[in-house]
Amino acid sequence: xxxPSANMAVFPGAFDPMTHGHLDIIQRAAKLYEKLxxxxxxxxxxxxxxxxxxxxxxxxxxxxDQPNVSVMTYSGLTVEFARSxxxxxxxxxxxxNVDLHxxxxxxxxxxxxxxxxxxxxxxxxxxxxxxxxxxxxIVEIGRYDADHLARLVPLDVAKxxxxxxxxxxx
Length: 170
Description:
This protein is of the alpha/beta class. The chain has a single domain, classed as 3-Layer(aba) Sandwich (Rossmann fold). It is built from seven helices and five strands, in the order βαβαβαβαβααα. The chain has helices at residues 20-30, 52-63, 78-84, 97-114, 132-141, 146-149, 155-165, and strands at residues 5-13, 35-40, 69-73, 87-94, 117-122. The protein is globular and about 50 Å long. It starts with a strand and ends in a 5-residue tail after the last helix.
């Protein structure tokens, strides 16, 4: 196991799909840590649209201009992944008090079982209501203009979502 480093943070998530809110957190966190690992995980409670490898590829494409950001996939507990790469910090984006409430329990458990600290970054105002689940629903059952959806996710991601989920034409 690598030597633990407080200058490395792991930003875990399903990123299914990656949003401008995720990218905002990544960009801001990259200024705070020497190394930021964006960790693409699996949420067993949600049906995935993209494979972990597809999500990793999209994130790499949109973070390649940040030399201290790496993207990795993992399975299992986030705290175990963080420890395996020597990270001492798990970074989480918080949109509202509901997110905070859910994340506090996880953060406390991670500190107890893994000696890993959790750092919360508030989502920027323009992304506060952005939800990957809502975006998938919009693409799957809604009517939208791709230019408007690109306010929530990068345009290439919006197009891939539409290809994958399709939309029924009335």
